[in-house]
Structures
1.
Amino acid sequence: MHIASWNVNSIKVRSKLVLDWFNKSNCDILLIQETKSQDHNFPKDSFLTEGLNVVFHGQKSYNGVAIISRHPITNVSIGLPGDALDDQARYLEATVEGIRVATIYLPNGNPAPGPKFDYKISWMKRLFKQSYDLLKTEMPIILGGDFNVIPEDIDCYDPAGWEGDALTNLQARAAFRSVINLGYSDALRTVHQTGVFYTYWDYQAGAWQKDNGLRIDHLLLSPEAADRLSDAGVDSEPRGNVQPSDHAPVWCTLSD
DNA sequence: ATGCCCCCGTCCCGGGGA
C-alpha cells in the first residue's frame, strides 16, 4: 500500500501532473493540500474518468484539501473538530482499505507572534485532541500533510536564518512533538534516522537550484500503521517539472 | 533591509503563501 502526501498549490493548474505522478508512482492513496478550489470547481472528472476515487473540501482562493484513491473511500469526515467558527478548509478524514487517513493543511502562522500564529497554535491543540481520539479506534491511522513545521534544524537549509519564524518556532515544534509523543511515528525519520530530506523549495531566489529546502510535509503513523511501515521517502523529481508545485510528495509504503 | 515567484479573483493589483 503506497500512501503519499503532496501540497499541490492549485489542483486546477496541477491536475495533470498530479494524475501522472499518481499513476507513475503506483500510488494507492494521495493526500492533497492547497487545492485552492471550491468544491463545484474541483476538476474531479480528471480522476473519475481514470477510475479513481476522489473526495475534497475546499473554499475560494485559499487552502483546500482532497484525497485521491485507487480504492473506495468511505466514512468521510470534513473539518477538524473543536472550533465551530473555524471556516478554513484545512482538514479532511476518511477510511480507505481499513486505514483512517487525514489530509492536513496546517496554518503557516507567520508573522509570529500575532493572531495568525495564535490560530496556528490553537489549531495544533485541536489536532492533538483529534489525534488522541483517533488512537482509541485502534485503526491504522495516517496523518499526512503540510504541517508547516520544520521539526529539527537538520530539516532546514539555513536554521539560523529561519530562527524566529513560525515554522521553526519552539512552541510549534513542541506542539508537533506532542502528537508524536502520543504514539505517532514520523514515517520518514523512522526509515531514515539521519540524512537531509526536503519537501519544499521556495519559487524565489533559485531555491530549488541551490537546494535551499525545508522539510515541512510529514506522514505521521499510529502504532498500528507504523507496525506495517516498510519504506518511506520524498520524491523530489516533480519539483523539477515545468510549472511545478513548490512542494514535493512525501510517501510511505505499508505492508498488506 | 527588501524582494525575488506563483496562484487566486466580480482580476492587471493586492493578499497569501513559507
Note: The mean pLDDT of chain A is 96.
2.
Amino acid sequence: MTIKDVAEYAGVSVMTVSNVLRSRGRVSEETRQRVLGAVERQGYRPNLNARALVERRSPTLALMLSCITNPFYPEFALAANLSALKHERHLLVCNTDHEVDRGMSFLEQVAGSLSDGVLVANYSDPPLAELRLLQSRGIPVAISVWELPDEPPGVPCVTFDAKGAARLAVEHLVGLGHLRIGAVIGSSKQGIHRARYAGFREAMAESKVRCLKADERFTGDSFDAGYAAAKNLLTARPDLTAIFVSNDLPALGVLNAALDLGYLIPKNLSVVSITDIQPARQSRPGLTTVAIPTAEMAEKGIALLIELMAGRASETTVVQASAPKLIIRGSTGSAAVAQRCT
Amino acid sequence: MTIKDVAEYAGVSVMTVSNVLRSRGRVSEETRQRVLGAVERQGYRPNLNARALVERRSPTLALMLSCITNPFYPEFALAANLSALKHERHLLVCNTDHEVDRGMSFLEQVAGSLSDGVLVANYSDPPLAELRLLQSRGIPVAISVWELPDEPPGVPCVTFDAKGAARLAVEHLVGLGHLRIGAVIGSSKQGIHRARYAGFREAMAESKVRCLKADERFTGDSFDAGYAAAKNLLTARPDLTAIFVSNDLPALGVLNAALDLGYLIPKNLSVVSITDIQPARQSRPGLTTVAIPTAEMAEKGIALLIELMAGRASETTVVQASAPKLIIRGSTGSAAVAQRCT
DNA sequence: CTGAAAGCGCTAACAC
DNA sequence: GTGTTAGCGCTTTCAG
C-alpha cells in the first residue's frame, strides 16, 4: 500500500495525495474529501522512512541516558517525551546502562540518521569527544542536566545551579543548629557530583561548622551505595547529627541505614539531599531535599535541540534552568536534641 | 557525505562500499581495507532511513507503555531495550501517559513505518481494536504482561499467572493465621487487575476466611490511590489484621497510610502485594510481595515480535512466562499478636 | 570479485 | 488546482 495506490484509487496524482495528507499546496475541498476517503478505506499510512529520506528530516529525536531504573530518568524522559511531541517528534530512547560502548554505537548509528538530533541526559560522564565530533558534522547535539555552569562542555547544554542547590541544603542544616555534619557523595571526588560537593564544602566553610575529611564518603549514585556508605560513616562517626547527601537515591539508602542502626530520624539524625525524585516524598520519614527543575530541563533540552536545527542556537549556547528550591519534609529537624539512640 | 562520496574517495563502486559495510558478498581484503580507511577518514555513516526504505525493514522496534514514572515500566523497558539490542534493534518508546489518543496516533504513525513492530506493555487497557487492525495489515504487534491466560486478546501475547500470584499472596496471609483480611485493588472490579482480584476471591473462599465486600476497595494503580484507599478501609474496618493489595505501587501507599494511622507493621497489620518492583525492597518495612517475571516478559515480548516477523508465530500465539514467586520481607507477620495500636 | 542500472516510497520544484 | 519530472541514499539484481 503506497501513495501511488491511493492516488490511483482516488483518481488523482500522487502529488495531490501527498498535499492533502500534509495540508500543503492548494487542493479543492472536493478532491480533498475524495483523497481522504480513499486513504481511510484503504487504510493507507505514509512510509515515514521514505518521507524522512527525501525531506532530509526525521520525525524522531533521540534521548540517551545512563540508567532508566534510576527514578530520576523516567521523570526526565516523561517531560522530554512530552516536549518532543509538542514539536511533532517521537523519541528514540537509548539506555546505556553505564556502558560506554553502547552509548557510542547508539550515537554512531542513530544520530543524524534515524533521528535528527540527540539529547544526552547522562548524569554520569557524557562522551564529550564523540558528541563534539557529531556536532562538527552538523548533527544537532545537546546535553541536559549539566552541573557545571562555569565549565561549558563545548556542546550546547541546559544547566542548573548544582553548587547553589548543595549550599541550600547545608544552610538548612546549619539553620537547624547542626554542628557535626557528614557528607555522602554519590560519585568520586572529581565525579559527576563535584559541583554539589563543592557547594557543600563552601557552605560548610562559611558556616564555620566543623567539617572533617573523615566525615565524608564518596560512593556510587544508588540506593545500595548510599546505604553502605552511611553504615560505614555512622559507625565511624556516631557523633554526627546530620548528613548531607548529594542525591536523593543514595539519600534514601542513607535513611534506611540510619534507621537500621537504630537512629530516630529526625530526632537523632537529619538527612538532606538534592533532586526531589518521586520516592523522596514516599519514604518514611519524607526526605527533605533541594528540588531541581527536572521537567524544565528536559523540556528545555528538547527545545534547545529544535533551536539548534533552526540555526537559532550554537555550540556555546548555555541555557540556565530555574533555581533549586528547598523542600522540607520529615528527615530533618532541630539539632538541639540530637543524640544517638542506643 | 553519502556512500557515493566514499566510493569515489576509495576508488571503488558504491556497491563495494555497501558490501564491505554490511559484510556481504565477496570483497578482497585489500579493497576492504581501502574502503574501511575511506569510511574512517571521511567519518561516513550510512543513512539508516535510506537503508530501511530499500530493505523494507527498519532497525527499530516500538515499545508502548502507559506511565513511565510507574517504576514497573522502567524495569520492563530496561529488559526490553536489552533484548531489542540483542536483535540489533533500537527502541522507540511511547509513553501514552494514560491518554488513549496519544497511543493511537503513535501506533498509526510509527507502526510498520518507522518501526517494524510494536510491543504494547500497557498495564491498563490496551487499544485492542487498533492493534488487531494493524495486525490485519501485516504489521507485527504483540502484547506483554497480559494477565488473562484464559482470555487471549486476539493479538499474540506474553502472559503470566496473575490469578496464581494473588493466590500465593493470600495463602501466605492465611498461613500466618490471619482471619480478617481486606483488599485494596488498583483498578476497577472489571479493570486491569481483575485476574488478581479473582485470585484473591478464590483463595479467600477456599480458606474459609471471612471476606466481606465491605473489606474491599477498588482504586487506582498509584501510590496516592493506595494511600487514600487504605486510610478509608482501615478507618472503616479497624479490626483487619492484613491487607492484600493487587500491586506494589499502591501497596507502598497502603503501608504508609497504615503507619500514619498508628499501626505497627507487621505487628498490628500485614500487607502483601504483587509485582516486586525495586522500591518494594527499599521501603521500611520491606514489602512482602509476589514477584512476577518482569524482565522475562519484556525479553519474551521482544522475542515474540521477532518471531512474528520471521513468520514463526501467529495471532494466536500465547507465550507463558515463569511462575510468580513469593518474596517474604518485613511487611507480613503472624496474626497472633495482631491488634490496633492506639 | 566488482560495477552499472533500477527502484524502494516519498516530496521539491516546476510545469500546465 | 493538479500533474510531471527528478532524485533523496541506499540495496537488489544481474552483467561482466
Note: Residues 12-16, 19, 25-28, 31, 50, 52-56 of chain A lie near DNA strand D (CB under 10 Å from a C1').
